[in-house]
Amino acid sequence: MQPKNFWGWPNVASSPALTHLDAAGHAHMVDVSAKAATRRKAVATGAIIMQPQTLEMILSGAAPKGDVLATARIAGIMAAKKTADIIPLCHPLSLSSVTVDLAPNDNRIEITATVTTTGATGVEMEALTAVSAAALTLYDMCKAVDRGMQIENIKLLHKSGGRSGDYNAA
């Protein structure tokens, strides 16, 4: 029988899939100093669904809070740069590039973030954080006219670089 940690979960510190637990089952930041610095890229996506008139207001530039799309794009970029400050145990990274694309489509805005670095650990969390912050910013800037907006399907689409190899969502 495998020992259990504080929450009653099996102590899986030796598992390569769950490396944020130490030998005692406590959370810790993984030491990546022995890993080679390689070019790494991650792409994440998500969407915010809204009333058609809300999307029309955004696209026409008539939102009471100003340029909603530009603000959401900047929020996503800033969030990617600060991911280590808001996600526990996430390594602070020097990012090479961050792009946040916002594509209106029917009654939604589709958000895609692409993040790159050359480093010892990946940028998946930065891409996912960028999408989340952009979606939350869109919600915040339009909630006065559409409280029923829904953020959905935030997920990793692509990851490349590093020891674990490439990943592409099906």
Automatic annotation (TrEMBL):
GO biological process, one term: Mo-molybdopterin cofactor biosynthetic process
InterPro entries per the UniProt record, alphabetical: MoaC, MoaC_bact/euk, MoaC_sf, MoCo_biosynth_MoaA/MoaC, Mopterin_CF_biosynth-C_dom
Keyword Lyase: yes
Claim: Cell division is one of the keywords in the record: no
Pfam families documented for this protein: MoaC
Family statement drawn from the similarity comment of this UniProt entry: Belongs to the MoaC family.
Protein name: Cyclic pyranopterin monophosphate synthase
Gene label: moaC
